[in-house]
Amino acid sequence: MSSVSASNEILVLYYSRNGATAALANEVARGIAKVKPMQARVRTVPEVSPDTEASAPSVPEHGAPYATHDDLENCAGLILGSPTRFGNMAAPLKYFIDTLSGQWLSGTLADKPAAVFTSTGSLHGGQETTLTSMMLPLLHHGMLIVGLTYTADNLLAETDSGGTPYGASHVSGVIGDKPLTDIEKQLARNLGERVARTALKLSDH
Question: Can you state the percent helix, strand and coil of the chain, rounding each to 5?
């Protein structure tokens, strides 16, 4: 029997400050939905501050619900998303990941597929280092990293904004006012679809 959960859900877990990363998460979820019977479970994490552990309400005022450890226990794969913070993932997502020692010890996520996506204000704002920073804890959990390809995803020929072999990305502009381009949307969907297909192949379906 495969070690992948019997669940058909891929967890799309993200933090978004101004909405750009959330928009990417929605496109990733659309890609997952293309692979039947796989489904997307979209979840976010609360804000944190230097003075307290959490600075957001216990229930989000809008958007996706907050993630719980049960979401990780029951998923067949995980896709993480974060805006760039000085070339690294944002603190709220890192804070949540830092609470997963129990899941690490029990191997909850081991042998499940995983992927990452990000949004930055500028083209050279640290997209690739942010993506790799999110990969590191996933590798420690024993997950199988899925990226994009230069050939099937046309990274070389079509991307002049977001898009990397490490994962989907978006260039939101300095004030975050640039919408997702068509190719950024497509790459995010491709990423979701690739993770869903990988999870399906690893399962007993």
Answer: 35, 20, 45
Residue pair 162/187 in contact (Cβ under 8 Å)? The answer is yes
CA distance linking residue 87 with residue 166, whole number of Å:
14
Please tell me which of 122-136, 142-156, 189-203 the model is most confident about, judged by mean pLDDT. Answer: 189-203
**pLDDT tens for each residue of 23-79:** 999 999 999 999 999 999 999 999 887 765 655 556 666 668 899 999 999 999 999
Task: Look up the pTM and report it.
Answer: 0.90
Outline where 16-121 has alpha helix (H): 20-33, 69-73, 91-97, 101-106
* Per-residue CA distances from 69 to 43, 73, 83, 97, 109 (Å): 11, 6, 22, 10, 11
